[in-house]
Amino acid sequence: MKELITSITIDAPPAVVWNILTDFDAYPAWNPFILSFGGKPAAGERFSVTIRQPGSKPMTFKPVCLKMDENREFRWLGHLLFMGLFDGEHIFELEPLPDGGTKLVQRERFSGILVPLLWKQLDTSARQGFEMMNEKLKERAEGMDT
Known about the structure:
By secondary structure, this protein is α+β, with helices and mostly antiparallel strands. It contains three helices and eight strands.
């Protein structure tokens, strides 16, 4: 298993960050990495998500939502074709900070037989996609919290 982890400090409370993170209909207006959601993620439910890593074409998949813990955590698990080939558990964690801000941690745990072959690309382009999304979410949250 390999894990990709990014984080950013946002000068806005977790509730503001959570509201942006879970306003899936607004993603096309601001999110350069996750282009769209189909359906409303809820624990145990399947939904569709379209992502675009920098330098790549958009890709749509249908993960299962593992957790929706308001103002704290959103997590899903997706597979390429079938479980064990290439699996990704994507996690957004919101940690409240003493100053009223939020630390957003976006990470993904990759497993499956294709991971060693794809890791170099994931560690560059997927990481860039995570970081771009984090920055845009920060801009949006700090702009709303004024």
